[in-house]
Amino acid sequence: LEDRGKDSRIGCTSDVFGGPAKGIVLYAQPDYSDSSWSNENRYRILLQYASTGSKSCHTIGLNKDAVLVSEGQWSHISVFVTRVDISQIEDEEGDERVSLYVGGDLAGRDYVEGRVRGGGDTSQTLVGRTRDVTYSKQKNSEYRGLGGRVGMLSFWELGGPESLVPITERMQIKSVEDEDHVTRAISRVAFDLRAIRELSLLGLIVKEPDLLYTFDGQADDKVEDGQLHDLYDQPTNLDIKEVIKGKDGTIRIADMNGAPLHNHEYVPLGGYRYPEYRDGNYQPPEWTEKELEEIDQLALARSVVVKKAMEHAWSGYETWCWGKDELQPLSNKCNDNYGGMGTTLIDSLSTLWLFGMKEEFDKARDWVKDGLNFYNVEGGVSVFETTIRILGGLLSAYDLSGDRVFKWAADDLGQRLMKAFKTKSIIPYGQVELDNEGKAYNTAWHSNAAVLSEVGTLQVEFRYLAKITGRMEYATEAMRALDELLKLDTQDGLYPTLIQNIQVKPSFANDEISIGAMGDSFYEYLLKIWLQGGKEETKYRRAYDKAMKGIMDKLIHISRPNYLTYVAELKYGKIIHKMDHLACFLGGNLALGAYTHPEGIQSSEAQRQLKTGKQLAYTCYQMYSRNDSGLSPEYVDFRNGKTDFEKGRDAPYYLLRPEVSETMFILYHLTKDPVYREWGWEIFQAIEEQTKTDSAYAAIKDVDTMEKEDRMESFFMAETLKYLYLLQNDNHTIDLLNTHVFNTEAHPLTRLNLVID
């Protein structure tokens, strides 16, 4: 302490930063006692402060059990200055508690006589670091000074007297347990600006930080652009008030008053992380009740961010293309690619309901009542797409809200779709004209055949429609088609992607097997039909298990050099080492099948399915995380080269697809392992960073160049955002094990034995 005759000059001094300093000083001190020093430079984080009631410079963080930090690794540091008696918060001389946390663990705590000496009316933050200089350490040994960087700095108001939030709606920091709770919660979102801002909305923190910005105090004296730099070496928008060159380094002083929030770009964290999850055997540690509470609070904060994305996309659609099929998010033009049925609107109904966007839901409901006319739809439409997006959307909206407007519209559509089943083979046509005199026929490019996934992905919707309307022909026709298909028995339960349907007896029309495009949801619905029917129709469960065994025996392969599990394709007897983004649904589907296995989750068959599902989930996560953009291409080729896989040469695009997010949601829903929330959050941040436009979100032409395409499919709001939201937010009634099934468009429907109409 240096007392220079004026009270305002009292404070702690530093060889590097000078002094006396008002307020709090944080610095790293080499840990001389650490026996590992020769191998890894380690430091103690120390805090110094002066108080109004003491004539000394206090230091905390010196206790031997304090957490050490390593050079070259990021650490999260929290400091609390808390009034011990919260009821005396207006008392200028009330005692305070100073607590220092490093990496979420307590590093030191002290009680202050009076108050911690503040910085006066003009708050300033001094940020610096030492040069790489050589010091003497004990007896002539040498070590390098810490090249310290500050990645993000934030100041929070925690239940203070000026809070705008009512006392009953905010968290007051009273006890040391409160401090433990808050610092662990905040440390989980270090360097995550989107989530850390949203924590403030939940009562954990009173409001958004008074100041939140990222920067870096550079070591050398040369500042080429004259600006502070953020965590990723990009210039920030924070003005530098002054630059001081000290004897051991450079100090930058940033004016904190009115400093703008710096929203840096999201930089993907990269692949090759979480290797313990690669083989599907890893069991995460047991979390304490406190840790689970903190994890849930962070996830809830993230769900708020996902909801804002939905609000942004919906607002753009509502503004520019209300009642049209799709918004084109770059030009703000509209298209009616599905015949003009308001596809985005109807496909988003269940998302609006689950997100609590009830005003938007009610407005969309009124359009369905007054503006939806299927007899005006021009030309032929896909039976498959119309069923999963439009019929499924209407049925789910009815199931969630009970509003009969949706049931009436679904019944009208169902009757118009029934003409597709009028074939010699019972296998339905792929296209149908919805007007009263319309016809049904196969799609032009496969005029003699139906697509496997389209034939096998109608039953969940038509069975539910039959249940609520009493028109049993809906269920009868859809199930006859599936049963006729299953008569074409295969040795391994795997079916070619095209089924000849113009003759009386259906037959296989090609010899290509895919769990991705043209095959995927056929296998998905074998399980979901069994679940939807209350697990009583055992032949569909047997067909599902047979198919899963066939997939695991014949199509599952392991890459080199990093041993990633993937599902290949089979064409005319030859394995094609290609995996679609669409095939990533399989990870979650296998897990759901394992958890509902008739012989129990511990049976050998269930355990094999679960392990394979987890392995595929990890690979699908790598399809995102290994790209610089953080997004996955439409498919990847496994070439057993240096990088396991490469993006598909003729399909480098990202269409805002949902399958990986779907698998993350299902695996978290079943296992409660928070790693799937982390992976899903990384995917969401990449979507938010790379695809957002002024009006919505756009597909990407190439995941390397990141050029946007003027296209946003309805499944982005129907599926992708819904799964990412439900992944982070457990406050819903969806229960995949007991009460609900999702159709393949992520529309939840109550199981038939539980439906009361």
Gyration radius, in Å: 30 Å
Helix content: 25-40%
Question: Which overall shape is indicated by the principal axes computed on the Cα atoms?
Answer: elongated
- Total of helices: 18
Question: Count of DSSP E strands?
Answer: 36
Estimate what percentage of residues fall within beta strands. 15-25%
Question: What oligomeric arrangement do these chains adopt?
Answer: single chain
Largest sheet data: 4 strands, antiparallel
**Distance N terminus to C terminus?**
78 Å
Mean pLDDT, to the nearest integer, reads 83
Structural class: alpha+beta
User: Stretches where pLDDT falls below 50 for ≥5 residues?
Assistant: 1-9, 88-93, 128-147, 159-170, 203-211, 216-223, 241-251, 254-264
Structural description of this entry:
A hairpin with a 2-residue loop joins β15 (240-246) and β16 (249-255). 32% of the residues lie in helices and 19% in strands. The strands form 14 sheets. Strands 3, 4, 5 and 6 form a four-stranded antiparallel beta sheet that branches. The chain has a three-stranded antiparallel beta sheet with strand order 7-8-9, covered by helices on one side. The protein has a three-stranded antiparallel beta sheet with strand order 10-16-15, with no helix packed on it.
